[in-house]
Amino acid sequence: MNGNPFALRALLGPSAVLCRTALTGSHGVALPPFVDHHVHLHLIDESGFAAGGIAGVVDLGGDPVALARRPLELIPHLAYAGAILTAQGGYPSGRTWAPSTIWREVTDSSLHPGVAGGAATAVEEQVTFGAAVIKIALHSDTAVFDAATLGAIVEVAHENSLPVVAHVQGGGMLRLALDAEVDVLAHAPFSEALTPDLVSECVEAGQQWVSTLDIHRDDPAAISHATQNLAAFAAAGGRVLYGTDLGNGELPVGINVREVAAIHAAGIQGSALIDTLIDAWPYSDALAGVATFIPGDPPASIEDIPRWLANATVVPHEELVHDD
Q1: What is the mean pLDDT of the chain?
Q2: Predicted TM-score of the model (pTM)
Q3: pLDDT band at 161 (very low <50, low <70, confident <90, very high)
Q4: Among 310, 186, 190, which residue's Cα sits nearest to residue 247?
Q5: Distance (Å, rounded) from C-alpha 308 to C-alpha 73?
Q6: CA distance between the termini of the chain
């Protein structure tokens, strides 16, 4: 394949380009910037993202004030939810990793601004601080929203042209999310094996699922459910987003090869695997000025892609010279 752009694109998709770096002459493959669609920046040292091949991140639960103050020019580029909206006493309140700055209790379905604990008040706070998405928690082991309050949150978010992302965990929670027209699941469902009809309903609703498979590597039941569900969702035409839940345990900053390999094992392979990484959701504009560059020879086969991606790094566009 070395030097054959047609074979390269057949393997990795139409955006793959053979190129070299202008400064060192190092040959490799350039792809659109990679995005990790589920991170928590307050729990990690973000300095290694660029060297690890990740150009953009989506923070799905953090202090909205701190996130809004982060300089825009930093790599990785940042889109964020701000604080997680939860029911009174709901997840993640009480968790040691979740200071009170990163979650808001919503106790009233009011659509009027300025109501203490109101749905509109909580959503509008995140909007004010620049949120690109709204994150909610639906965890059956804790308190969860009633249908009216959940519906109000989704309604206000959609009125502000923001998708709603849900942490869904436990029996009945996916049904609740579907009925409320939640747009994205922060994790491929891992609590149970879903029926084909329920998976099809998620696809027909236009849901997107973030992978986060590697966080379950020490839980055989959860990794089995999540992998099976993600495989069925993708096979039915569902849109999968690469994401790691970085900050949740010992995970690498940058490309997580275990996550990539787990997505591959779910049958999302080749160009479809690359698509999960280069999907720019929820950025309103393409990630400007940078590409993800993998030095050296391209992968020889689909099976080689996860391991090959381990060498990815972020490079400014002006440093790359196309070979084809």
Answers
A1: 96
A2: 0.97
A3: very high
A4: 186
A5: 28
A6: 13
